[in-house]
Amino acid sequence: MEKRLTWILPKNSGRNATGIVTTHHQGGRHKRFYREIDWKRNKRDIVARVVAMEYDPNRTANLALVQYIDGQRRYILAPVGMEIGQKVMAGESAPLTAGNALPLKSIPVGTLVHNLEIGPGQGAKLARGAGAAAVVVGFEEKNALIKLPSGEVRRFNLESYATIGQLANEEWKNVNLGKAGRKRNMGVRPTVRGVAQNPRSHSHGGGEGRSGEGMHPKTPWGKSARGTRTRRKFKYSRKLIAQRRK
């Protein structure tokens, strides 16, 4: 662990500033250190060498610690096939090998990518989980068409950066945790059925004896929980979606 790139991650256990639970099933996890990750890859056309591969408790993907020729070290997400000693680079002239970051205009159709920027210079926002990969499926006049892991085909600015390859640790979701205590160490508290709660805590709660939901399934805040599309009809990014996910 690179100490200059880490600090203790504050824990709020799903509570907001007034102490009210705003995210259920969180709390009681082990102390964690946050690793500062280079989402922007803004050291352009400078070669870096992978000096370590590390586990990150804050995400499903693994990390690679890279060192540039000027001595500076940074964390990046590790793609499939990355090894210690490998050279990586960011820039328009970078080779099309896993771990290198390029603008979308320089990436050919059919290439697997991750760490997608929504806008140029914003830093990676999409396809950042273990095993995730998006695919470059085509180009328009001013945009690249990318098929995201959800199945949605979306338009991206040609100057936005993406990193080549699929993220490693694909088997993370098949790991058997073995016991409830390990889940508690990860900060996940038990999930309680809505019908077993009181009406102040959940929209399914209340009633004498054992009672069903009595309504279409809802979240604790009354939003439809099954099948209903809740995306805003006139959201700013609507024109960027070329094909909705199934």
From TrEMBL:
Residues 14-90 form the Large ribosomal subunit protein uL2 RNA-binding domain. GO terms for biological process: cytoplasmic translation. Coiled coil: none annotated. The keyword Kinase does not apply. Residues 96-224 form the Large ribosomal subunit protein uL2 C-terminal domain. Residues 226-246 have a biased composition (Basic residues). InterPro entries: NA-bd_OB-fold, Rib_uL2_dom2, Ribosomal_uL2, Ribosomal_uL2_bac/org-type, Ribosomal_uL2_C, Ribosomal_uL2_dom3, Ribosomal_uL2_RNA-bd_dom, Translation_prot_SH3-like_sf. The keyword Ribonucleoprotein applies. Residues 205-216 have a biased composition (Basic and acidic residues). GO terms for molecular function: RNA binding; structural constituent of ribosome; transferase activity. GO terms for cellular component: large ribosomal subunit. SUPFAM superfamilies: Nucleic acid-binding proteins, Translation proteins SH3-like domain. Residues 182-246 are annotated as: Disordered. Keywords: Ribonucleoprotein, Ribosomal protein. Pfam families: Ribosomal_L2_C, Ribosomal_L2_N. NCBIfam families: rplB_bact (TIGR01171). Belongs to the universal ribosomal protein uL2 family. This is Large ribosomal subunit protein uL2. It comes from Candidatus Woesebacteria bacterium GW2011_GWA1_41_13b.
